[in-house]
Specification:
Elements (H helix, E strand, L loop, with lengths): L2 E3 L9 H7 L8 E3 L7 H5 L6 H13 L5 H12 L10 E3 L4 E5 L9 H16 L6 E6 L3 H10 L5 E8 L5 H8 L6 E7 L3 H12 L2 H4 L3 E3 L6 H17 L7 E6 L4 H11 L4 E8 L4 H8 L1 E3 L19 H8 L4 H14 L1 E3 L2 H8 L2 E5 L2 H15 L5 H11 L9 E5 L7 H8 L20 E4 L2 H11 L5
Parallel strand pairs: 4-14, 5-6, 5-8, 6-7, 7-15, 9-10, 9-14, 10-13
Antiparallel strand pairs: 1-2, 3-4, 11-12
């Protein structure tokens, strides 16, 4: 399996190369040269497999010759052995049509664990074969940081530098990052920044030859293909439990950087019958506008109770535009260059029509989010975090045929957003026992100004160089 850049100029890489590189050298994102596809009979035969075996089966075509099937299954077994629920991503029924797919049973209580527990093992596997030490640089709006840090803390030949916008993540999210005191973990609180600002600095570093010449820089954000690959699995897992592939299933996905819902798109390209992918946004609604009117124009980020969705530039949307727009990397490079210069662009007719075949979108304001939290609590006895509530609002607004199950991805444990849940329901969710002492742990982080040179200088002073 070869991986090509969405912008058409970077060299093609194998799975190992794409995993370690993260972002392509031309600024694009890696995608498989072609989508592997399963027949309906092959998908049906996966029913009942334990999650780790299902994951290895679905991911093997993407891995190619870089890992044997046996070794891949060893890694998936190790990755998902740390989850608190034996099913890894269990389903819960809300009513006759609506279901929750709980993705928060990993060590940091968020869906990012499903991919990052595996990605940490892949880094260790590939770095153990030789080559330069890896310097991971990432940005987080809350959950990616803690999941990535947990996945690589203490591992050899890798350092991680995680940027978060100071004061714009929840107290639980921050502490899950800053209380990990492993020597290879570096938390950076970026003053006066949004997630988009932090993400832009990370992307700039990948293109900074002064940095890439000295350090082997890698990514854990969803710009890294291996993360999306791992997320494809739970779409198959849920659909198989609800009658797939003989029965179509729809999914509502709380969406910020577009990686989680793009994994659903990949599942569909692989042959999984998906009725619709419902892209749920909060008031930071660039994706809603892009999918409903073709207007991909970034505005000002509005802080909300769902901080992981407080994003105006969704990096993974580029992957969709590339695939539905005819896979013309040079044309997309020009289109994205225009967007980066003006922060505005219109989707082409081909891109809009291609996306409309599978995607719809809905947005939720603060009142609609709170109403969804109350509905789930009052009607089904479930506490939802704000992001999941936005997904549920979109699911209930979707007007999907009642015969089609609609699965909302529950992306975080409600205890990560205790204040918002308590305001909506009067119930304050408790932290699970495995992180119950979180607020008693020592924190360690550095505050830096929202200036690229300051961030780059800090990384350069603390990372292990090539050679």
């Amino acid at each position: 399996m070869e991986y090509v850049s969405t912008r058409g100029s970077a060299p093609a890489l194998d799975f190992e190369g794409a995993t370690l590189a993260g972002l392509a050298s031309d600024g694009g994102l890696y995608v498989p040269r072609e989508w592997p596809r399963f027949s309906a009979d092959e998908i049906a035969a996966m029913a009942g497999l334990p999650y780790a075996q299902l994951a290895a089966r679905i991911m093997q075509p993407f891995v190619g010759q870089c890992l044997t099937p046996q070794r891949l299954q060893e890694l998936t077994t190790q990755a998902y052995g740390r989850f608190a629920h034996k099913a890894v991503t269990p389903l819960r029924q809300l009513d006759e049509q609506h279901w929750l797919l709980e993705l928060f049973h990993g060590p940091t209580l968020a869906f990012k664990d499903v991919a990052l527990q595996l990605l940490g093992l892949l880094f260790e596997e590939f770095l153990g074969r030789g080559g330069d030490p890896l310097t991971i640089v990432g940005a987080t709006s809350g959950d990616t940081g803690s999941a990535a840090i947990d996945a690589v803390a203490g591992r050899e030949r890798v350092d991680i530098f995680m940027l978060h916008p100071k004061g714009r993540v929840s107290d639980v999210q921050r502490r899950q990052m800053t209380t990990v005191l492993a020597p290879n973990v570096h938390n950076i609180a970026v003053e006066g920044a949004t997630f988009d600002d932090a993400q832009a600095m990370v992307k700039r570093m990948f293109g900074d030859r002064a940095m890439t010449g000295r350090f082997a820089i890698g990514a854990v954000n969803s710009i890294n293909w291996a993360r999306l690959m791992a997320q494809v699995v739970y779409y198959f897992a849920a659909a198989l439990q609800l009658g797939g592939p003989r029965r179509k299933v729809a999914f509502a996905v709380p969406t910020g950087n577009f990686g989680d819902v793009f994994a659903g798109y990949v599942a569909a390209q692989m042959g999984l019958p998906i009725e619709r992918l419902i892209v749920a946004t909060n008031v930071n609604d660039i994706l809603y506008r892009a999918l409903t009117s073709g207007d991909y124009s970034a505005g000002t980020v509005t802080p909300t109770a769902a901080p992981s969705m407080d994003i105006q530039v969704s990096s993974n949307f580029e992957r969709l535009l590339f695939d539905v727009g005819g896979r013309d990397g040079l044309a997309l490079a020009a289109q994205m260059a225009g967007f980066e210069a003006t922060r505005a662009m219109q989707l082409t007719n081909r891109q809009r029509e291609g996306a409309a075949k599978l995607f719809t979108s809905a947005r939720a304001d603060a009142d609609e989010m709170a109403h969804a939290i109350r509905w789930a609590h009052d009607r089904a006895g479930e506490l939802l975090d704000p992001h999941t509530a936005i997904g549920l609002h979109a699911a209930r607004e979707s007007r999907i045929d009642p015969a089609v199950p609609v699965v909302t991805l529950a992306t975080a444990h409600p205890a990560k957003f205790r204040d918002a849940v308590e305001r909506a329901t009067g119930q304050r969710p408790g932290l699970p026992a495995r992180i119950g002492d979180l607020f008693e742990r020592e924190e360690r982080m550095v505050d830096l100004p929202g200036d690229y040179d300051a961030i780059a200088a800090y990384v350069a002073a603390h990372a292990v160089p090539r050679g």
